[in-house]
Recover the amino acids of this structure.
């Protein structure tokens, strides 16, 4: 074994092509880390800007409570702080999702879905086109992140390193020499593949460590990341091991392996994607509601409008409301938000259902299983976005309840009231159990391939 | 030459693996066309129903104040072109509906990819996956041993001893294979053309012919390259590996890498900064020294001077309507300034990939295919532009009605007659012609022609210099 490994090492470092390809992958990986971290940094800068501007607005509102009301400016500042509606207008409540460190290595859908929302009383998160400006062409091309390098390019590296692991000795006429020395070709191939695995895995570790350092990934997340990628490598080595058992020529083996690569990374996922069609892709119902429901609320008379509002929040019925315009504004904002959220939650459920449906065929495609698992780990999968959006809409309702309560009761804010308004508390991160569960299909398929490979190698050896 | 072409066809027919693969590709293409056409029909119905519903809401809003109606707004939907069954382009990544309202421009909402899991990033099975990735891979598989096989079987020198040159042989093989791909392509496009629903926007003979032309050139280029590499390679195995490496590099690695480099080189402004700049320009004027309040006062005074009155109450028109329209028009200029900048940044980002067409013919094919199918980013921009123009028209009509329809300044309860809305034309997107679309793809078009010329010159002038033993 030691001899084989040292022989393979010498072969490897003498092969300029193999070393160059290794270095090419290293550079690709480093660029991917650079791209991923710069992308994450841009999102982080936006989050920091949101945070600092939001805090500045809150400080400004706080200072308004102690403004000198003998001056015109002071009176206005005081009014803008103590009036619940005007206060909220000036605060411009925003919520955001801070990018997780691993996002830099697995961007997933985080470049495509909003990561902050403006919760102004007349806005609705489900109708908000907010999110960063995006170039659709860039979205179509996808991200050159480390997950892409590992998922798409490393299988090619494995193919280049292994397609002739068995046939090249035959084609060079040295296989009989090896056999005559009492060496089992089957074992020889196994050791050769092990060596190649170590060479590739070393690169995975090296790049992951670089990513871990630059993106400041937590250690436990890093371990799971490595585990997922190691499994993916083992899967591809199992594929190679199986294909080599067919004992075809080097060129044909390479063609079969590249075809399998196309199958796993392009064909199967695209066929599966074709199967899923959203019921209302244009969200016509939501759009129609946004226009018609708000219009119907606006057109309602005072009495039916108040009755509708008291029906959803009976505690507000006890207030001696005098200002008709105030009720109209509160009802319009609150009832509209509840109604649109109701429709929005259906969209959320559809998105989660789609994700679950698309997860099912992972058993035949470890590439998508691992991609999803890595995205889950990085917090860049759709369910994380859906959770964030739901949290944002729930928070908007809580905040509206608090503000409207003051408006309807005719009370004004004081400093303590303002400070005790609900704060955004996003739902916690998902458990790592789901990560391991997401890997299961890949584990099963890898085991099946390995067993099939071993059996076929035995048969062909006989 | 004709005999060699016939021989190549006979060899192709005898190659069972190739025939099987070709058969699979043909069946797959048929299946993909059928499924995509069915999905297109569904999408078209959805969009038409949605557009009709929104139009009926708009025209049926009855007697309302025009300014309230501007706030209720109107939804328009992005039309789908039948050629998207061939190449869906950026459609999954761009919004499908646009909310048009007074005072502000919105972004297109509900892009299919935004509502999907990360699986969407693997793409959909569309003809472009077959025509741009799988068929070229098949071409490489078939052509990699075009010359090397003859060398390995030691029939090459026999052929050459009969008086033909290696160049003639290479040309004959290139032509033989290219004709097969062209026929296959023509059949696929003919099926697409034949099943195109009558009256489909965006499916013109020019676009279909353009698609045939670009794919034909691309297949010719890679066939010629494959034959050339085959002639130069010591063995068929080496030729196949070289070609596979080139295929992976040009089809998978380069397009993604260049799109990302474009993003790094020309980053888009953050929305936060954009909104701040727009707000600032609206508030303090485009030059920073023309505050909104002063603009409003100036406008009011000019109006009173025009009508020769000393008070807004004496104006024979509704000042609110005219002020809102003036404000809209100023805001439009601000919007155009900023969004033209954004479109320019996107163009710069995309130009990185476009210019790599000179070293990667796949990049040229990819962009030209989307462009001719009417599904590239510039078609999306064109839809947004036409929808925005429509927004300006309807908002102006509402403001004008408020101003000249008989209401008085400050009378926000005044309403238009119920039939007013019917007089406003529906939004109708006018598709670009193929020529207009291709104006955005000059580097790609030139590069594809360059590749056509380059491989032809390469084969014609250098193949004979290759050692045949």
């Amino acid at each position: 074994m030691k001899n084989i490994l040292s022989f393979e090492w010498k072969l490897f470092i003498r092969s300029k092509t193999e070393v160059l390809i290794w270095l090419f992958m290293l550079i690709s990986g480093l660029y991917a880390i650079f791209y991923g971290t710069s992308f994450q940094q841009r999102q982080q800068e936006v989050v920091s800007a949101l945070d600092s501007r939001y805090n500045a607005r809150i400080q400004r509102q706080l200072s308004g409570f102690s403004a000198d009301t003998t001056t015109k400016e002071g009176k206005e500042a005081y009014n803008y702080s103590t009036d619940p509606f005007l206060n909220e207008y000036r605060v411009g409540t925003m919520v955001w999702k801070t990018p997780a460190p691993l996002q830099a290595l697995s961007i997933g859908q985080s470049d495509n879905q909003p990561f902050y929302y403006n919760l102004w009383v007349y806005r609705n998160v489900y109708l908000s086109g907010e999110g960063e400006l995006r170039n659709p062409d860039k979205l179509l091309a996808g991200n050159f992140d480390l997950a892409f390098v590992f998922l798409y390019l490393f299988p090619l590296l494995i193919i280049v390193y292994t397609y002739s692991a068995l046939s090249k000795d035959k084609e060079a006429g040295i296989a009989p020499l090896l056999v005559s020395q009492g060496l089992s070709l089957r074992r020889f191939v196994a050791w050769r593949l092990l060596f190649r695995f170590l060479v590739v895995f070393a690169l995975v570790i090296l790049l992951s460590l670089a990513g871990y350092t630059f993106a400041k990934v937590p250690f436990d997340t890093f371990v799971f990341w490595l585990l997922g990628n190691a499994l993916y490598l083992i899967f591809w080595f199992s594929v190679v091991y199986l294909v080599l058992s067919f004992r075809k020529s080097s060129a044909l083996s390479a063609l079969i392996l590249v075809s399998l690569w196309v199958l796993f990374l392009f064909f199967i996922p695209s066929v599966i994607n074709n199967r899923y069609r959203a019921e209302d892709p244009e969200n016509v119902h939501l759009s129609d509601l946004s226009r018609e429901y708000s219009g119907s609320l606006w057109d309602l008379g005072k009495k039916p409008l108040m009755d509708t509002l008291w029906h959803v929040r009976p505690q507000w019925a006890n207030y001696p409301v005098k200002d008709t315009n105030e009720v109209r504004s509160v009802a319009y904002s609150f009832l509209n938000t509840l109604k649109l959220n109701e429709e929005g939650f259906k969209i959320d459920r559809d998105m989660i259902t789609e994700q679950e449906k698309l997860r099912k065929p992972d058993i035949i495609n470890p590439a998508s299983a691992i991609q999803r698992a890595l995205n889950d780990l990085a917090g860049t999968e759709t369910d994380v976005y859906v959770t964030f959006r739901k949290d944002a809409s729930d928070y908007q309702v809580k905040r509206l309840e608090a503000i409207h309560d003051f408006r309807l009761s005719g009370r004004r804010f004081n400093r303590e009231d303002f400070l005790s308004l609900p704060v955004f508390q996003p739902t916690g991160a998902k458990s790592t159990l789901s990560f391991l569960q997401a890997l299961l299909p890949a584990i099963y398929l890898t085991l099946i391939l390995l067993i099939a490979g071993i059996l076929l190698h035995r048969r062909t050896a006989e | 030459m004709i005999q060699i072409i016939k021989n190549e066809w006979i060899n192709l027919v005898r190659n069972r693996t190739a025939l099987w693969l070709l058969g699979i590709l043909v069946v797959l293409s048929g299946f993909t066309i059928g499924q995509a056409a069915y999905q297109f029909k569904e999408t078209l119905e959805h969009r038409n129903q949605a557009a009709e519903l929104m139009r009926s809401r708009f025209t049926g809003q009855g007697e309302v104040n025009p300014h309230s109606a501007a706030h209720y707004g109107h939804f328009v939907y992005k039309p789908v072109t039948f050629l998207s069954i061939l190449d869906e382009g950026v459609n999954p990544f761009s919004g499908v509906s646009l909310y048009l309202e007074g005072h502000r421009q919105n972004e297109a909402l509900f892009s299919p990819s935004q509502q999907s899991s990360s699986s969407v990033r693997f793409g959909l099975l569309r003809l472009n996956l077959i025509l741009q990735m799988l068929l070229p891979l098949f071409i490489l598989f078939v052509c990699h041993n075009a010359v090397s096989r003859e060398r390995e079987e030691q029939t090459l020198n026999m052929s050459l001893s009969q008086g033909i040159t290696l160049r003639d042989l290479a040309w004959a093989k290139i032509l033989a294979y290219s004709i097969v791909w062209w026929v296959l392509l023509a059949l696929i496009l003919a099926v697409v053309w034949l099943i195109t629903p009558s009256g489909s926007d965006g499916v013109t003979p020019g676009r279909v012919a353009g698609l045939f032309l670009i794919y034909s050139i691309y297949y010719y280029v890679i066939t010629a390259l494959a034959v050339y590499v085959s002639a130069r390679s010591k063995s068929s195995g080496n030729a196949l590996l070289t070609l596979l490496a080139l295929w992976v590099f040009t089809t998978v690695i380069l397009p993604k890498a260049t799109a990302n480099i474009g993003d790094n080189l020309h980053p888009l402004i953050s929305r936060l900064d954009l909104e701040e700049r727009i707000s600032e320009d609206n508030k303090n004027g485009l030059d920073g020294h023309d505050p909104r309040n002063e603009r409003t006062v100036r406008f009011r005074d000019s109006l009173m001077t025009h009508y020769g009155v000393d008070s807004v109450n004496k104006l024979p028109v509704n000042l609110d309507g005219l002020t809102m329209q003036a404000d809209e028009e100023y805001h439009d200029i601000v919007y155009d300034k900023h969004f033209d900048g954004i479109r320019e940044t996107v163009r710069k980002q995309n130009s990185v990939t476009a210019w790599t067409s000179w070293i990667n013919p796949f990049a040229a094919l990819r962009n030209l295919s989307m462009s001719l199918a009417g599904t590239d980013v510039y078609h999306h921009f064109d839809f947004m532009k036409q929808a925005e123009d429509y927004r300006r028209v309807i908002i102006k009509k509402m403001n004008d009605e408020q101003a000249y329809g008989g209401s008085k300044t400050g009378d926000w309860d005044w309403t238009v007659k119920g039939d007013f809305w019917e007089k406003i034309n529906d939004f109708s997107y006018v598709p670009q012609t193929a020529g207009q679309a291709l104006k955005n793809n000059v580097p790609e078009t030139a590069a594809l022609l360059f590749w056509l010329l380059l491989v032809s010159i390469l084969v014609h002038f250098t193949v004979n210099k290759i050692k045949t033993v």
